[in-house]
Amino acid sequence: MPPISPIFPGPASLLVLGIETSCDETGIALYHTDRGLIGQALHSQVDLHAVYGGVVPEMASRDHVRRIIPLIRNALTEANANLSDLSAIAYTAGPGLAGALLVGASVASAMAMGLGVPAIPIHHLEGHLLSPMLSATPPTFPFVALLVSGGHTQLMRVTQIGTYELLGETLDDAAGEAFDKAAQMLGFGYPGGPALSALASGGTPGQFTLPRPMMKSANLDFSFAGLKTAVLTRIGDRTLSASEKADLAAEFEQAVVEILVGKSRAALAKTGIRDLVVAGGVGANRPLRKALDQAGTEGRFNVHYPTLELCTDNGAMIAYTGARRLAQGLPFRNALAFEVRPRWDLASITT
Ligand code: KG4
Ligand code: ZN
After folding, report:
1. If we measure between CA atoms, which residue out of 326, 180, 329 comes closest to residue 256?
2. How does DSSP assign 269-324, residue by residue?
3. Closest ligand to Cα 54
């Protein structure tokens, strides 16, 4: 992987190991404050869970245990670095699956203790929303972040690292969850978002009509449960033909895209901010990117995305966030006192 140019000047060169184990990806990365991302290793458990139609927490934890040390070795080899070169170890402390988080937290804390370096607990969503900073044209503060993953759909105002104000969020299902559930209704396994999107590319929106819940509401909240139910109602007890399935998928995707674009525009108008950062797995959706780019051209705002491989869970976003927090001297807990927080509001973290 080509090294990415320096993103921020620090007091001294730092090398941070990032560990992500909040759900079904074991993500490891090494971020150097002068040289950028110099090592990455990732193992996705998608195949392991697909047969069950969703993530099985106990199986996820056990697989993280199996993979984590070999992946750390791989990332160090790619970076041509040794454990003794590390300045700190950053790990995802939440939100996520408790057992899965504990694997990363305990490995990070044990390594940090052994090496005599800090262990830095990182909020998973902070990692996601800072991931576009690893792109060639990083956004500058302040920006509005649209976080769209399998578990979260939120709009945040980001004034600086560590200062996050919740502007609006989903009242029920997350956008990725709605994609996955609609995909399941159309016969796809877990996670169905990318498969539904591929099917939609061959269909025509408007052949079926689906609602745009809360599109016109005065606030910046979202709701996707009704849209998901509407898909189920349209299918009813019929067996859809291949082209009908594609049309229904296309209408569903268009509804989600219109809602996400509409609410993002409203958040930018409300805050007066002209930069939008899109992060989380659904940020990989191509029609969403196209519609946001078009809205940005029309509304004269800039849209920033992580690279496609950094949209979904990865260690790079955790290593980068840890490096920024360390370089800025932001407080974090002692390595001996690690904890994980399966439920954790991003807006509640303080600098
Ligand atoms: O951020 P992420 O990797 O994991 C969570 O923290 O949840 O997001 C995973 C979600 C899944 O719901 C998946 O179906 C969805 O992102 N996703 C997509 C696409 N790629 C991933 N949804 C729609 N279109 C895509 N291309
Ligand atoms: Zn995620």
Report:
1. 180
2. HHHT--EEEEESGGGG-HHHHHHHHHHHHHHT-EEE---GGGTSS-SHHHHHHHHH
3. 1
User: Do 23 and 60 form a contact (C-beta atoms < 8 A)?
Assistant: yes
CA–centroid distance for 269 within its chain: 24
Helix (H/G/I), strand (E/B), else coil: 155? strand
Confirm or reject: Cβ of 213 under 6 Å from ligand 1.
Answer: no
Alpha-helical (H) ranges within the chain are: 46-50, 57-79, 98-115, 124-130, 175-185, 193-200, 225-235, 242-271, 286-299, 316-327
**Radius of gyration of the CA atoms of the chain, in A:** 20
Q: Pocket of ligand 1, candidates 149, 186, 196, 289: which has the most ligand atoms within 8 Å of its Cβ, to mutate?
A: 149
Residue 268 and residue 144 in contact, taking contact as beta carbons nearer than 8 Å: yes
Please tell me whether the peptide bond between 287 and the residue prior to it is cis, using omega within 30 degrees of 0. Answer: no
Q: How far apart are CA 252 and CA 247, in angstroms?
A: 9
> What residues does 73 pair with on adjacent strands?
none
CA of 146 to the centre of ligand 1 (A): 13
pLDDT, one tens digit for every residue, the chain (351 residues): 444 444 555 567 999 999 999 999 999 999 999 999 999 999 999 999 988 888 999 999 999 999 999 999 999 999 999 999 999 999 999 999 999 999 999 999 999 999 999 999 999 999 999 999 999 889 999 999 999 999 999 999 999 999 999 999 999 999 999 999 999 999 999 889 999 999 999 999 999 999 999 999 999 999 999 999 999 999 999 999 999 999 999 999 999 999 999 999 999 999 999 999 999 999 999 999 999 999 999 999 999 999 989 999 999 999 999 999 999 888 776 656 677 888 899 988 866
User: At which residue do the structure tokens 């800039």 appear?
Assistant: 302
